[in-house]
Amino acid sequence: MRTPSGIECAYFYGNYFRGKSDEECRLIGKQKAPNNWTPDLCLTCPIPGILRANACKNMSFTPKISKNWFLGKRHVTIASYCSKSNSIVKSPHVGCGMCHPFGEILDD
Length: 108
Ligand code: SF4
What we know:
Layout: E1 12-15, E2 22-25, H1 47-53, E3 59-67, E4 74-82, E5 87-89, H2 102-107
Antiparallel strand pairs: 1-2, 3-4, 4-5
The structure holds iron/sulfur cluster.
The site of iron/sulfur cluster has 13 residues, from helix 1.
């Protein structure tokens, strides 16, 4: 579904049926302030870009809402984990390298 920022995200859900305006992020979920989800977080969230670049089904994400100490704005940071290789994925746009080894591309 398309987020309020206009980006497609698999974790965003909006219910606008019959004048409703219920929106939620199903990755962050319902958290107490200051870690609650607000639509402005979608604008800089890395998740839509990661999902476009890497469709791996074994990767899971742990979101964290951080605050920029200088500007005072909140933003989403994520940690990703691969359940197949049982390891932390350092570059979620690329993946952990188990299913699609990096050398495969370079050897051709
Ligand atoms: S905060 Fe990120 S993961 Fe959540 S709905 Fe917005 S873009 Fe998607």
